[in-house]
Structures are given as C-alpha cells and as structure tokens.
Design brief:
The chain is an alpha/beta fold. The protein is built from eight helices and eight strands.
C-alpha cells in the first residue's frame, strides 16, 4: 500500500481524545479526578495516545494534563495547543513529565475560516503553521499538526500545508472533518489524494479525526484507513 511503503510497521494507532474533544459533548464535563481516573482506564485498555486536554484553556485543565503526564505509564500523552507560542509553551510544560510527550498543534485552513475567523491569506497560514511546528519541536520530538476544517479546505492548499508542516518536523498529520459533514467516499478520496500529491507524505503518520454530526464518524474513519491513514482519533462511547 502506498501509505505504508517503506515503513517497518503497518498498524493502526488509537488516539483517544475523550479527555479533550469528548468533553465538548453535552453533559460530558469532567472534573480533575474523573480525568485522571479515565486516563488510567485508557492506559489499561492499551490505547496508543491519550490526548489529556487543552492546557492553556484553564488552570484545571493544565493540572489534569500535568498529573496524567506524571502518573500514566505506557501511552503517549498529548496536549492540544493553537498555533500560538503561549499555547505551545504551556502545553509543553504540561506534558513534559510524560515518558512519551506529544504536542498537538492546530490551525484552521479552510477558506471560510481564513476569511472570517483568522483573516489571513494562504501564505500567512503556511508561515504560521511552519513556525508553530518548529517551536513545538524545540520542546518535544513528537509533534502532531492538524489543519482544522481540513475536509472543507481546497485540496491544493491542504496539500501545501501538509507538505510544509512535515518539512517543519511534524511527525503526525491529522486530517479532521471538523464540522462532521463529509461522507465516506469523499473522505477516502481526500486522504488518497494527499498520498498522491504530497511528496513527503511517508515521513509522517497520517491521522483522521471524524466528527459524528451526521452519524458518519466511524464510517469515515474506516474509509480513511482503507485510503492509507494509520491513526484514528476517537472517544470512548460515553463521551462520544
């Protein structure tokens, strides 16, 4: 398979984001004790990566991520950060105690986000993404980059951003269906197109993060695996 050519292992990594994105579901708010308890259970289940939270969001979230990084053994412990230096530095501080820390940075790339949320041109987005990945790499070796709203981003621009982020040092590229609107055949085509158009694609693990607004989250995730993705971001059912 093109996606895994030259790689020693061809396995799917489970990235559990129950403690971060899962908590955004109505009624799924978790306190510090609950987050740490769930993290222990996730480790026992054998998940590969636990996204423990968004450290800059609140002192409580920072504390939970930091304690999980200190106490959980086995999985990689990831924290989320916007492509902003203050976010990244705070995230690094939170995950640093982990044996396998990861910083997950994200930046919106779709036309609607560029125009109305970020008010930035394509070149500015690429510049910010590259700078943020490099800054995150100054703290940890394992850096994940997500082009937010990737499924609504122009394919040519998405490929440019992905290539630039990998060149900057991203070890995982996550392709999110942020608004949960795509269908399996569309999403499979998107992932396949990245493997065809991004020359350095095999230098990173390709991940997907599928929201379930139309009830297609699992179907889209499975379709992406058939197209070559090798990390799936998901939550446990009670917080999905």
């Amino acid at each position: 398979m093109t996606a895994t050519k030259g790689k020693k292992k061809d396995r799917v990594l489970v990235f559990d984001t129950t403690l971060r994105d899962g908590e955004q579901s109505p009624g799924a708010s978790l306190d510090h004790r609950e987050k740490v308890e769930i993290a222990h259970q996730l480790a026992q289940m054998g998940v590969d990566i636990i996204e423990a939270g968004f450290p800059i969001a609140s002192p409580g979230d920072f504390r939970a991520v930091h304690e999980i990084a200190e106490t959980i053994k086995g999985p990689t412990i990831a924290g989320l950060a916007r492509c902003v230096e203050a976010d990244i530095a705070r995230c690094a501080e939170a995950v640093m105690p982990a044996k396998k820390p990861r910083i997950h940075v994200f930046l919106a790339t779709s036309a609607i986000h560029r125009k109305f949320k970020l008010r930035k041109a394509r070149a500015e987005i690429i510049k910010q993404a590259v700078a943020s990945v490099k800054y995150a790499k100054s703290f940890v070796d394992d850096v994940e980059f997500s082009p937010e709203d990737a499924s609504r981003t122009e394919p040519d621009f998405l490929a440019q951003v992905v290539e630039a982020a990998i060149d900057a040092g991203a070890t995982t590229i996550n392709v999110p269906d942020t608004v949960g609107y795509t269908m399996p055949d569309e999403f499979s085509h998107l992932i396949g197109a990245l493997f065809e158009s991004v020359p350095n694609i095999n230098d990173a693990v390709i991940s997907v993060h599928c929201h379930n607004d139309l009830g297609m989250g699992v179907a889209n995730s499975l379709a992406s695996l058939q197209a070559g993705a090798r990390q799936v971001e998901c939550t446990i059912p009670s917080a999905a």
